[in-house]
Protein: Ubl carboxyl-terminal hydrolase 18
Amino acid sequence: MMSRRMFSMCGRSWSLPIGSRSQGLRGLRNYGLSCCVNALLQSFSATWELVDLLEGWNPVDKESVPLYLRKALLAMQSDQSQPAPHRDFLHCLDRNDICFYVQQDADEVFLSILNLIQQQMSDKVLAQEIQSLYKVTMETYLQCLECKYIETGTSFLLSLPMHIRESHDSLEDCMRFFFKHQELRDGDKCYCERCGEKKPSQQGFKLISLPPVLCLHLKRFRNSHGYTRKLHYKVTFPETLNISEILTAEALSERYVQSDSQYSLCAVIVHSGDAMFGHYTAYVRQKNQSWYYANDSSVRQVSWKKVQNTYGGSQREDTAYMLLYRRTPEGKQQEWSSG
Structure:
């Protein structure tokens, strides 16, 4: 079961006075408290690289998460006007300890779905291809500040956690902070193999490679003394970004390929409310470059300015919680900008 639990207002009907389909985007009914999974499914559906891989798969699996995910995503691609059927997928998640009658954390469910695909899909080559769509490869760095001994390794993340500071912030600042080397002293000292004991250290990450779809998790929920609160602080994010222009050379491995740095925003998972009473929706970008807003069974086309309203800054506002960026070939950035 997920480690974090929150009560929710998802049971309330939040449907807007519009249809359940808009220009290729089908809505999803809210069963119990399924708004979190609904929002994630919309982001998966807008990730056509994932849809194409699953559509070309000839499954022999039975009662598996990847099988029911495939069925749900293919149903969402059809031209029918009513909400897409996805209850079998919800029940399959429920059998794998992701209960849709309990409010979940979207990033935790996202990671759990990707891990369950890896575990349950019989075609391991395809499972690895799907995970590689989101896999960030980094070099880990740990240096003893006394003897200067350095340990390095390689780690993988499917979602980069972005720490939010208690003031106006930007996604670019969050990324720079994540890759900034941190000193570990006092109770945070690390064991040094050369010294044979815990010593003050410096640790950090260096980026080796980025995936076709980059997921960034804005860590808006903070636990303190057994109490979870939501950070409503403003965090701006761009429609297009260039990683190599954001990070310093210190944050990039020698193996990093500069031409893989350009990205365009393709989906935003949004949380409204607070830690104990919330609701998930999604903004997704279709192949026609237009933005759409999916609130369970209701969908409608919106402007980029509407997406920007999720920066946060007020408890009354919806706040972006997960950002998904798609790698864009060089020279194509302008086509992906809404202006």
About this structure: The radius of gyration is 21 Å. The chain has nine helices and 20 strands. Residues 106-120 form the longest helix (15 residues).
